[in-house]
Amino acid sequence: MKEQKNIPPKLADRFLSWFCKGELLEEVQGDLYEYYEELIERSKWKRNFLYWFHVFNFLRPFAIKKSRSNNTNFTIMFRHTLLISFRSFIRYKSSFLINLVGLSTGLTSALLIYLWVYDELNVDKFHEKNDRLYQVMEHIQFNEDILTLKETSGPMAEAMIEKLPEVENTVAVAPAHWPGFDNFTLSVEEKSIKATGQYVGKDFFKVFSYGLIYGNKDQVLVDKNAIVISEELAMKLFDTIDGIIGKTVVFQHEEQYFISGVFKQVPANSSVQFDFVLSFERYKDIKPWVADWSSLGPLVYAVLKEGTDITAFNDKFVEFIRDMDKESTRKPFLKAYSKGYLFGNYENGVLVGGRIEYVRLFSIIAFFIVLIACINFMNLSTARASRRSKEIGIKKVVGSRRMELIFQHMGESVLMAFLSLLIAVVFVIITLPYFNQIIGKELTLVFNYNLIFSVFAITLFTGIAAGSYPAFYLSGIRPINTLKGTLSPSMKGRVWARKGLVIFQFVLSIILIVGVGVVYKQIEFIQNKHMGYDRDNIIYFNVEGRVKETMETFLSEVKKIPGVHNASSTAHRMIGKNWTVGIGWEGKNPEDNTRFEVAVVNYDFIETLGIEIKEGRSFSRDFATETTKAIFNEAAIEAMGLSDPIGKKIDFMGKKEIIGVVKNFHFESFHEKLKPFFFIIEPGSENKVMVKLEAGREMEALAGLENFYETYNPGFIFDYEFLDEDFQRQHESELRVGALSRYFAGIAILISCLGLFGLVAFTAERRTKEIGIRKILGSSIWSIVYLLSGNFTKMVLTAIIIALPISYFFAKSWLDDFAYRINLAWWFFVGAGVIALLIALFTVTLQTIKAANVNPVQCLRDE
Fold first, then answer.
1. How many other CB atoms are found less than 10 A from the CB of residue 738?
2. Which of 110, 428, 518, 541 could be 811's S-S partner, Cβ–Cβ 3.0 to 4.6 Å?
3. Count of CB atoms situated within 10 Å of the CB of 483
4. Helix H or strand E segment including 352
5. How far apart are CA 751 and CA 366, in angstroms?
6. What is the rounded distance in angstroms from the CA atom of residue 554 to the CA atom of residue 537?
7. Exposed e or buried b for every residue in 202-236, given b needs 16+ CB within 10 A?
8. Higher-confidence position of 736 and 399
């Protein structure tokens, strides 16, 4: 048997002398340090060295502080904490890896969500006058409902600047998203480019901070024939941005404009993206109706003078519109422009949210994911407490104060958090391109002041949150109990707390699983529900050039192209809004302000989209007077209260006869109820061509269309979109929420199971001898598995019972925002619970089988 070394008598005497007197002699410090280093270098520590090692290890920083400054004490304590943390990580490898994976995964999710949330919160806030920049909006009464619109009257901008002294500047805009404004063709010599533009007032660049590279913001839009283009468009047209002021650009191969300015590329965090702007005065010449107070259409923005009370101004604004339009029942108000992107949903005149709801949702998800990772750390740290209890007891015996112990354990946690941060940053860099594909943005990881501060704050919070409970818990252990090896009643209470945290983890995970299931089924419902028309394999493109003048000939030739099933033209994309209240019928209540959606279409439009005729007939070239006819949907007939509508007359742009009724169809998102809708024919007013392609021959048809279009309409680019993709964009937020929810729910489950795995492994390790004895006495592997997994199964079942009613409440609240939605079936919730239980059982069983298969002899052998 090898000889065991004891502590040198001289050194032990000096230590005891110091311990009794409460001070440490200077000459002893060197001896302690040397012996401390000797113990570190030993490959295996002898049992009788263990307690002395802890004494010297933790004695040094706290004893030497009596003879050194506070700064030095802190430095020593910090170095000491790093050293002890490193040794703890090495000693408890499994716990360290579980915590590292959990925290780094949680921080990766939090950082990705932070980048998205930060981008969302900063949309439209880059304008220099952001704090004084407002958009004119209006509340309009329709029967029992109040409709809130962004559109207002064209003359509003000029009248505000003239009549309201609080207004510093205004601008009217015919926005890029208007029907027919999707893409224009700009040409320079033989080069033609598709670009998005809008008509804006002359003070556009004084109101908005779209920086001009060339041109004077006071002058660039004074001339009606001026055009201001982006630097990117300039590069496409001229291959340079220098020396192009005054050069000519041909618009739609019809009109010539001279370049009066070049602006910087519109920032990615602008809610409006455009490539060029033209004068709003020019638009008035094209569309005279925008100068009428009774019309609605343009957007108007205003900059108020500093110090203006917005509430008082809005009260005054209502009276202002009545002075301009005596019969108006409209109630205009100003809304901060930068809030429009996030706070855009109104119900009956009351703001009820908007995209901010998704910002809040994913912020909460990020918090919960990090919280779940922190809970893992807390659970594994407190579960490991018995291993470190003697260490804590020795420290307290030799004089360590509680705050010093808290600092040490909190330091371990914060160090773990920052190690996780390093891994998380690498993960973010790797996953960011895929994340951008899901969210439809171009986020970048740029380490500016805001990002560094926010990431540091998130990580520090994570470290403190994860380490606070273990630090206060471990530092509160009584030395007498730890040295005796007994478990105090308070420590037993911590076991229940640990179970509670596990239950809480799985409650959150189950809620996320239910959420993913409900969102997935609702999106599936939206995608598969019949719209009332066939949107598959239908493309549309703008009416331009020669097509505008020879529509019937063009459509006739298009129908001959192989793979084309049918074609027509329209001024309505079957999404969006083009409503009117200016319709009359026999027996109409004068107070009735029902809104009707109106679509100007061509012959064969109803057939091209496969809209079903309920009664009457469709438009036909066999009749010479179809411009005096109209076709309504069922909702419109019901709103008008007509029992036998065919042949009845309505008043809309003259007298029109109802010749047909079509079955209801969806032209808005599923958030909206079906609205009254009618079709009319107005030759020359169509701005889009819709083409139905034969299934299986789409590529052939598209190639033929492109060749024919470029030959028939030279100089114009064949630029098309699919109608079903256009429809999907109405539910873009839901689609992205569904995709993100799946990933983050999976991450939450992964982190929860990691923690459960660690606790099971620790439990199995603590009960090693019990397992050995049970196996010797004849217990089977599966009986031991059942024994070890029973408590964890009960915790997960408890979590299921708690989570299901909570998840039902949240799922129902989300679905209530849809006018057409799925029914919440019981199996959504039971299925989520079963999934969580199976995942947890798999995790627990995997580890317990490993423990149960250990050789009984090895289990009973002393360490």
1. 20
2. 518
3. 15
4. strand 350-353
5. 13
6. 20
7. bbbbbbbbbebebbebeebbeeeebbbbbbebbeb
8. 736
CB atoms within 10 A of CB 586: 11
Q: What are the two backbone dihedrals, phi and then psi, of residue 696, each rounded to the nearest 5 degrees?
A: 90, -10
Assigned token pair, 65: 């502080």
pLDDT at 343 over 50: yes
Strand, coil or helix: 261: strand
Residue with tokens 């015996």: 397
The encoded tokens of residue 303 equal 């900059």
Query: Average pLDDT in the 720-745 region?
Result: 80
Strand partners, 200: 173, 279
Say what the pLDDT of residue 456 is.
Answer: 85
Question: What pTM, to 2 d.p., does this model score?
Answer: 0.78
Residue 421 tokens read as: 């941060």
Cβ neighbours of residue 142 closer than 8 Å, sequence gap 6 or more: 581, 593, 594, 595
Both tokens of residue 600?
A: 């100007």
Burial class (CB in 10 A: 0-12, 13-18, 19+), 485: exposed
- Cα–Cα distance between 458 and 470 in angstroms, integer? 19
Instruction: Give the CA distances from residue 138 to residues 290, 319, 348, in Å, rounded to whole numbers and listed in that order.
Output: 16, 13, 12
The Cα 569–Cα 600 span in angstroms is 9
- What the block records as the tokens of 733 is 């937020």
Cα(137)–Cα(143) distance, integer angstroms: 19
Both tokens of 468, joined, read: 């606070």
Give the length of the chain: 863
Establish how many alpha carbons lie within 13 A of residue 648's alpha carbon, considering only the half-sphere containing its beta carbon: 19
Kindly state the DSSP code that residue 201 receives in the 8-state scheme: -
583: which 2 tokens?
A: 């319709």
- CB within 8 A of 558, min separation 6: which ones? 564, 567, 689, 691, 705, 708
Q: How confident is the model at residue 24 (pLDDT cuts 50, 70, 90)?
A: very low
- Look up tokens 């002075």; give the residue: 323
What is the Cα Rg of the chain in Å?
36
Domain boundaries, the chain: 1-67, 132-341, 357-527+732-860, 545-715
Phi, psi of 600 (to 5 degrees): -85, 120
Comparing CA positions, the residue from 302, 287, 247, 250 lying closest to residue 135 is 302
The answer to whether 234 touches 227, Cβ cutoff 8 Å, is: no
Continuous segment of H or E residues that includes residue 579:
strand 579-580
Structure tokens that stand for 682 in this block: 């107005």
Beta bridge partners of 681: 601
Both tokens of 771, joined, read: 């397992």
The answer to whether 344 touches 355, Cβ cutoff 8 Å, is yes
Question: Is residue 636 predicted with pLDDT exceeding 80?
Answer: yes
The percent helix, strand, coil of the chain (3-state, each to 5) is 55, 15, 30
Helices marked H in 651-731: 698-712, 723-730
